[in-house]
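Recap for those who missed Tuesday's class. We walked through two folding examples back to back. For each one, the amino acid string is listed first and its predicted structure tokens come directly after. Nothing is annotated here on purpose, so try labeling regions yourself before you check the end of the notes.
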Amino acid sequence: MSGSKKPFSTFRLLSFDIYGTLIEWEKGIIDALSPIRARLPDSSPLKTDDLALASLFVKHELRLQSTNPGRTYDKILRDAYISVATELLPPPSSSSPENKESVPNAETLQSEGVALAESIAIWPPFPDTIDAMRKLKRLGFILVPVSNVDRDSFGKTLAGPLAGLSSRLSGSAPFFDAVYTAQDIGSYKPDLRNFEYLISHAESQFGVQKHQILHVAQSLTHDHVPAKQIGLESVWIARGKDGVSGIGGDVEALEGRTAFAWRFKDLGEFADAVEAELQK
């Protein structure tokens, strides 16, 4: 950690990662991978190791996002599921007759991959998310997600798990001031184009300069490494035990490649710190 720690009052716009920071991405993915896990032999460490299974999924997801930047996230999720299954499970033709029913064919994997993609609509928010985001809204910040997602999937998250954000707003005003998705941008984080898009659109839409943006995210790999590369101030929401998760990267392994100025265990702690400073 080596950022400047400027006063929070110097920032006008808070940009957010959504899945992993506001939404329990890892739990949603692990739950959706249960058909694969159920077919693994009892001797497989991935049968019980959530961290390793999530890390394997992210490996395939990052590869697919890099090689297919224009593909929508629902298709990325589907194809990452199929890739994980293909790596871990034997093909039907190579299985013994007594195990043949437990080995899925291509049609089954396609169907299960689609089910994983559709499950994004019910991935839960972290317990602190709704109250923390409402607090940051009340404090007057411009709030903008920069998310590796497609518009339709994010709409399902807003209508379902994050519906509580807008429940106390007057009229039909949206909670977020703008939403920048991978589908809008044509690439996925950690591609710097996603952060260039944030910076340029923050200025054109809101008159906000780069130094007035504070990026808030859990993933070191997807968010904090590119934030340092492009010169954005950032806050690490270190979810999980000591910030360890299967989706965000290892803070020790990435030493020197990130420069987040603040570290908080969750969004609630961050929002409380911002409120405490601004109310002095």
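Example two. Treat it independently of the first, because the proteins are unrelated.
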Amino acid sequence: MTRASPIDPALQLVGDHASRSSYEAAREALGLDQPLPVQFLRYAGAVLRGDLGQSSSTGGSVAADLARTFPATLELATVAILFGAMLGLALGILAARYPGGWLDAAARVVSLVGYSVPIFWLGLLLLLLFYARLRWLPGPGRLDVVYQYTVVPWSGFALLDTLRAGDLAAFRSALSHLVLPASVLALHSLAGIARLTRGAIVEQLRQEYVLTARAKGAGEWRIVLVHALPNVSGTLLTVVALGYASLLEGAVLTETVFAWPGLGRYLTTAMFAGDAAAVLGATLAIGVCFVVLNSLTDLAAASLSRGRAP
């Protein structure tokens, strides 16, 4: 697909005013003079060696760029999924416990808002309200400017690096910068988790074993938490894991709005610059995240199933 793009990587390398011989030499160096299947095999072989190519927009290797930007996205997505999963599971359980009530209606409204409101619009709205108007939270970026060059990027995670440096003021700055972008992503994940949690538990409450538990005098909360919830734990684990993977991918718009120096912003910049190597590398990294999380989720779900087996 990148080869179908009108952007010519060789022309980007040598410039518009280069001679024909320089242009052809660049095409040969990049392997663009070879048939498309050969180009694909060469790229795949380079990827297996850990070589993702050179970025034309940054001038460095794509692998080094990903190692620099991915921790910021991972930190943002992790904080967002923690809050989204906790709130989504709690809201879904409450909605299933009181179906048809105001809590159920609130869960439906939150799910509808989380699914319907565009991420970039919500991010801009939160910036306007809490940063520009109320001044309660900091604006775009990951740290205040005063701390950007005083904290050594040891792990790439701002919260860990500031704690390791022993700078509590920088830690508070990093934490406050996380609030708005993490809230936007958390709302998006919360919507799906709450809806699917409610549906799965309500379905379990219609099963015969629930009638048996009620006949034996079990309370409703015990039925929900002790009987129904463990039976849907594998499904919920899959939903949370896929939500986590989608946050790693869906952070593109959020990072662009909040100027978050992560993988999403790197991918957006590369797309606008026509940087094919960077786009391929970032897309490949996101795909690997999906595969790894899916595999780990399958193993965890299988382990839970064996643990429940008589």
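Answers for example two:
The chain has a mean pLDDT of 86.
The first helix runs from residue 9 to 14.
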